[in-house]
Automatic annotation (TrEMBL):
Entry keyword set: NAD, Oxidoreductase
Residues reported in the UniProt entry to bind substrate: F151, L152, R153, E154, K211, F256, L257, R258, A259, G260, G264, K330
UniProt-listed Enzyme Commission number(s): 1.1.1.22
Protein function: Catalyzes the conversion of UDP-glucose into UDP-glucuronate, one of the precursors of teichuronic acid.
Protein name from the UniProt record: UDP-glucose 6-dehydrogenase
A Pfam family this chain is assigned to: UDPG_MGDP_dh_N
Enzymatic class: oxidoreductase
Reactions the enzyme catalyzes: UDP-alpha-D-glucose + 2 NAD(+) + H2O = UDP-alpha-D-glucuronate + 2 NADH + 3 H(+)
Pathway field: Nucleotide-sugar biosynthesis; UDP-alpha-D-glucuronate biosynthesis; UDP-alpha-D-glucuronate from UDP-alpha-D-glucose: step 1/1
Record keyword Oxidoreductase present: yes
GO BP terms in the entry: polysaccharide biosynthetic process; UDP-glucuronate biosynthetic process
Binding residues for NAD(+): D30, K35, T85, T125, E154, K270, R337
Keyword presence, NAD: yes
Length: 440
């Protein structure tokens, strides 16, 4: 099948490449000419495990190409919308200008297709009600609109795209249009469906809500365990044991209960905020006031880390050298959007410390985008003569650090383990003052 993917960022580039992997003929459209050139040369514009090989193979194999020209999407039967929906400058609501521009620019290129209806398929995360609004806009063209939200995690993007936990279609209200649209998407995902991936159908609003509900639940789980970490800190209890113990209950489950400096990235923080903003517009803001608390607990983990660092440095940052291990919002990604690590590093530097930061994947990007920051090649270079080390993104390179070796290079052996990934006993035995999150 001939497919277009509009917007080739973390989501769109991986989706386009995986669609080619499924055997489709794919064109990716993006307004960023530099990104398009890179992708056309088979090079990933971001760090994502397993993506480079797939991209190179599909571009060289001729089933995948990228363009800045919407006219190249003409003739495709399915057009996926994967442009960004960041938090708006003014408040919590999602900035819909990219989605609106993409749909408006795509409409003139939507053509009748001999094999069934042409589809515009939304994958971006949007405020509930967007699909109905866009369907009215697309209505004058030969295409139907479907909402098919994406649940991939960065760091596992390829695997999550090809073997998702579920697929959901938000379908048009007209039964004939719904049935025909559903059949076309089934053909797109045929091999995945044949492998038994659950596929649900719903109306537009439900499909849109499934996405933000899932992210809200995940964010709530993280803030819940971080709230428990605060209780553990006040009582001398250990949140890692608490999480393991409650996680044995099937109804709770062990995942997403890692206490630390909290959630960041281009999704959870802005999605819960956009959800609250949308609930306000719908007159049901009270339903989501708990998300405000989820957000507050999350932000508090960042300020708590800065305050702890301040205390450990004797109440002043000035003249101190601080090593920060991690800049990306999570390991196996170079994404620094709303990164707790970067946020904490900025706050400490802003209060007068000399901060040296390192990140295996985000480091080079950071050095380019933030010439004001000192970026080191690795943990040892960052930690040289440091008065304090903070581990804020749990890369394997940092988890595997030898405490005795690292101790050799620092000025003062004290570490904040903002992700609870180090063995406190081993670090203490090597002479370090160790501080985790919610651990005695
Ligand atoms: N990153 C993820 O893990 C992930 C997972 C699921 C859902 N999402 C959602 O997917 C959407 C995209 O997220 P992302 O992380 O890929 O963002 P991103 O910023 O990495 O990518 C967006 C891309 O869209 C391009 N773009 C902007 N306007 C355009 C236009 N008018 N026409 C064509 N291209 C345009 C940008 O140049 C950019 O390359 C968001 O709604 C996000 O919430 C992201
Ligand atoms: O127990 C945990 C788990 C995660 N995190 C943090 O939470 C953030 C988000 O992690 P994760 O959800 O793994 O990363 P994303 O790639 O942002 O993926 C989320 O956001 C995507 C975009 O909407 C969705 O598609 C995914 O399903 C959803 O997991 C990161 O900062 C993690 O460090 C914790 O602090 N504790």
């Amino acid at each position: 099948m001939h497919i277009s993917v509009i917007g080739c960022g973390y989501l769109g580039a991986v989706h386009a490449t995986c669609m080619a992997e499924l055997g489709h003929d794919v064109v990716g459209i993006d307004v960023d000419a530099g990104k398009v050139d890179l992708l056309n040369s088979g090079k990933a514009p971001f760090h994502e495990p397993g993506f480079d090989e797939l991209l190179e193979r599909q571009v060289n194999g001729g089933r995948l190409r990228f363009s800045t020209d919407y006219a190249d999407a003409r003739g495709a039967q399915v057009h996926f919308i994967a442009v960004g929906t960041p938090q708006s400058e003014e408040g919590y609501a999602a900035d819909m200008t990219y989605v609106d521009a993409a749909v408006a620019d795509l409409i003139p290129h939507l053509l009748e297709h001999p094999d069934g209806p042409t589809l515009v398929v939304g994958k971006s995360t949007v405020p509930v009600g967007t699909a109905a609004r866009l369907a009215a806009q697309v209505g004058g063209s030969p295409a139907h609109l479907v909402w098919n939200p994406e649940f991939l995690r960065e760091g596992f993007a390829v695997q999550d795209t090809l073997t998702p936990d579920r697929i959901i279609y938000g379908l048009p209200g007209d039964p004939d249009a719904a049935e025909a649209s559903s059949a076309v998407l089934d053909a797109v995902y045929a091999s995945m469906l044949a492998a038994g991936i659950p596929r649900l159908t719903a109306d537009y609003a439900t499909a849109e809500l499934v996405k933000v509900a899932a992210n809200s639940f995940l964010a709530t789980k993280i803030s819940f365990i971080n709230a428990m970490a605060e209780l553990c800190e006040a009582t001398g209890a250990d949140v890692t044991v608490l999480a393991e113990a409650i996680g044995h209950d099937d109804r709770i489950g062990p995942k997403f209960l890692r206490a630390g400096v909290g959630f960041g990235g281009g999704c959870l923080p802005k999605d819960i905020r956009a959800f609250m903003a949308r609930a306000g517009e719908l007159g049901v803001d009270q339903a989501l006031t708990f998300l405000r608390e989820v957000d507050t607990i999350n932000t508090r983990r960042r300020t708590a880390a800065v305050e702890l660092a301040h205390r450990l440095l004797g109440g002043t940052f000035s003249g101190k050298r601080v090593a920060v291990l991690g800049a990306a919002f999570k390991p196996d990604s170079d994404d620094m959007r709303n990164s707790p690590a970067l946020d904490i590093a900025n706050a400490i530097a802003g209060q007068g410390a000399r901060v040296i930061i390192t990140d295996p994947a985000a480091g080079p990007k950071l050095a380019k985008s933030r010439p004001d920051m000192e970026v080191a090649a690795d943990a040892f270079e960052a930690a040289r003569d440091a008065d304090l080390v903070l581990l804020l993104t749990e890369w394997r390179q940092f988890r595997d650090l030898d405490p005795a070796e690292l101790r050799e290079v620092v000025a003062s052996p004290q570490i904040i383990d903002g992700r609870n990934v180090l063995d406190p006993a081993a670090w203490r035995a090597a002479g370090w003052t160790y501080h985790g999150v919610g651990r005695p």
